[in-house]
Design a protein that fits this description.
With about 140 residues, this protein is mainly beta. The chain has a single domain, classed as Roll (Pnp Oxidase, Chain A). Helices cover about 5% and strands about 50% of the residues. The strands form two sheets. Strands 1, 2, 3, 6, 7, 8, 9 and 10 form an eight-stranded antiparallel beta sheet that branches.
Length: about 140
């Protein structure tokens, strides 16, 4: 049986159904908070209890800035803006093979790369988005 690995370099990101280009997606994940207790008597292993979550998960998106009309719309994404429906589609051979949905997002940080007159790099914008949920949808045959 042959296995086809999923590439991490071909993806699409949409905010509320509107596509945006990004060069990097970081912190694509979720977590829970736990507490451990040790019971008396036979305490050869701790008991793990799930705690109410006190801090959100963070998604980090990076993109190079352009002089296109799309960049004008993207400039509206500022700190405090709610982004309720973020979808990330991972592509292989032009077909979506995995999707991630992020809900309850709020932009908590916006940062730009340093400007340096002695280098010829592209100016990069980073968005850090706090969210309360990540759902993964595997699509083994692609759509």
């Amino acid at each position: 049986m042959a296995y086809d690995n999923i590439p991490s370099f071909s993806f699409k990101v949409t905010f509320d159904g509107i596509p945006f280009s990004f060069t990097k997606v970081n912190n694509l994940g979720g977590s829970i908070e736990i507490d451990t207790i040790v019971e008396g008597g036979a305490n050869d292993s701790p008991v793990i209890l799930r705690k109410p979550k006190r801090s959100p998960d963070m998604l980090v998106l990076e993109r190079g800035l352009c002089t296109s009309i799309g960049d004008v719309g993207f400039a509206l994404f500022k700190e405090g803006k709610k982004v309720d429906a973020i979808s990330i589609s991972v592509l292989r051979d032009g077909k979506t093979v995995r999707m991630f949905f992020v809900t309850g997002g709020v932009i908590v940080k916006r940062e730009f790369s340093p400007m340096d007159a002695l280098e010829s790099g592209v100016m990069v914008q980073m968005l850090q988005i706090a969210h309360n949920g990540l759902t993964e949808v595997p699509l083994p045959f692609g759509i």
